[in-house]
Amino acid sequence: MLIGIPLEWRADWEPTAEAIAINRARIAERLRR
């Protein structure tokens, strides 16, 4: 998921609980098809 993202960005990128929930929902959608 984070491959290709510069380390500087990754270091201070902290996903909010909401962002994580949205990502999980999207992944679940994709897997269901």
From TrEMBL:
Which InterPro entries does this one have?
T4_endonuc_V (IPR024796)
Xref: Gene3D superfamilies: T4 endonuclease V
Question: What protein am I looking at?
Answer: Pyrimidine dimer DNA glycosylase
Native species: Brucella neotomae 5K33
